[in-house]
Amino acid sequence: MNRVVTITIAVALSSLAFAGVSRAESLGMNTAQGIEQTLRSFHGNDFNVEEVHNWRNLDDENTGPHSAPERSGQAVHGIQASIDANRSLAHRLNNEGVDVRNIVNAEQAAYGSLTFYVR
Known about the structure:
three-stranded mixed β-sheet; 3 strands
């Protein structure tokens, strides 16, 4: 009985520790600094490209998802510069017909894929 309680407590503490790590990781991964770091080191092919709404005309629902928040001009420039610094990512985006200068946002999903938002 004592062994079962000890194992149960160990499992509970381990799961709490892992939950905290994954939560902390998800909070910072889409900040301006976090996404720039990710873009500079991204080597996968798991990304998609979405068009964004015209943020000035939110009634236009035919141009893209509602979920892409608008970034400041400085943040957009940082995203574009980070992509430029990662030549293989810039090349893969170019092969998909994406002009890096049209990217206005990027987000990383919890499982590691990226979504690029273009205007």
